[in-house]
Amino acid sequence: MSSKLNFKLRDFKKFLYIYIISFSLIFIQCKITKKKVGTPKIGILSYSFTEESLGIYPKFIPKEEILKLNFLEGKYYTVYYSKGLEERAKYAYEILNKGDSIIKEITGFDELEKTKYNFILLDTFGNFYTDLDLPNSFILTRDFVSDYGEFKRNLFSDSVGFKGKIFFIFHKKVEGILYDHYLEEKELKTRFIVEGVSELIKWELMALFWPERFYYLSEKIADLFGKDTTNKIYDLSDWKTMKISKKETKTLKLKIKAKPEELTNLLPTLIDTLLPIVMRKVKQEREEPKLYFVAPYFWAKIIDKSKNPNLVKDFLKELRKSKDRSQKGIIKILERLTKLNIKEELKISSQEIYNNICKYWYFIKLPLDKKDLPTIEELKKEKDRKIFLTNIAQ
Fold first, then answer.
1. Any domain includes 385
2. Pick from 126, 3, 7: which is nearest to 55 by CA?
3. Domain presence at residue 95
4. 37, 46, 167, 254: which has the fewest C-beta neighbours closer than 10 Å?
């Protein structure tokens, strides 16, 4: 009994560590980059969650060290990499730069050309942050955690884990552009836009570059929705961003007076301040993993019903010039473009997504016995497959 309890406590500590460190670096990143021009920018953390790294705070790696690495430079990304990681770097370079061309085609984002990202592969263990042209950089080390909380080792020898991180970066990049240029900070109930469009694009890219991944995602759909005997209704209009209070913000601002290389010493104090915020986040996210499936399905559904493959691009164009970016204003734009009752379309049941998401990309309605599954090649031949919004690599 005690061993099971200890195991759960260890996992809970890991879980808290993930969120606390994430919030710490994200907050530092946001606040410092809003200061005067010339102030050093802090880079995003390279997450490391093994037993050995718990309690070890991130280490600063100066940009001079990163600039000594080999690199591949493209239109949208520069990939820096340690010796021995050439193959991983070439794969990342090709997918990241092709992927951003496709994102441009789907969204019409002008911001992609204005914001170039760095992708840094370090053949070592541990957590790192840097001051190289950031916050537009991602550092990956050998340690990593999977999308669903499974702790693993040596990212570079795990092809599935490595690919997963690349597609995660696509999601975060689209998300960042939406928050920075298209949505109001005070409007909290826009997650169905941000997460929905980001995942929609990620799945679009997966259909082109990693189609076999949809077998795994289909298993998640069956487990999360197909087995739900209550047929729960998910109302995406209620999905909101967690708000940090003015008091918490003020406390955190007082603590951020360090130079980039001094932040390692600052993090323990930040973590103490962030703990109550993290606990609220943990409580909020009990149902949240399911919404990362529901939100992109919503977009696929309204694109399908409106028969407009350019809906995302048209919507973002209208949103960019709109003075009303409240949830109410956003829904009005979508209703005008689609001629649909968006408030009702945002309400999606477990059985609806389980039965209907198989119309799109390479999802399949997974039978519980998991027998007689089609191959990817067979799925590609189905004439009613929809929501391939790009003409590239068809």
1. no
2. 126
3. yes
4. 37
Distances (CA, A) of 15 to 48, 81, 186, 282: 12, 29, 28, 9
Quick: pLDDT tens for 119-161.
889 888 766 777 776 557 788 887 654 444 454 556 777 788 8
CATH number of the domain within which 234 lies: 1.10.390.10
Specify which residues 139 forms β-bridges with.
120
Structural domain of 102: 2-380
Q: What DSSP string describes 226-295?
A: IT-TT--EEEGGG--PPPPPHHHHHHHHHH----GGGHHHHHHHHHHHHHHHHHHHHHHTTSHHHHHHHH
Written as six digits, the tokens of 305 are 């019903």
Question: The tokens 């019903």 sit on which residue?
Answer: 305
In a domain? residue 390: no
Task: Calculate Rg over the CA atoms of the chain.
Answer: 21
Per the CB < 8 A criterion, the answer to whether 242 and 274 are in contact is: no
Q: Considering its fold, how many domains does the chain have in total?
A: 1
Tokens 């820096």 belong to 80
Pick the most confident of 43-52, 167-176, 302-311.
302-311
323 occurs within a structural domain: yes
CB 56 within 8 A of CB 128: no
Helices (H) and strands (E) in the chain, counts: 15, 10
**Lookup: tokens for 351:** 């059985």
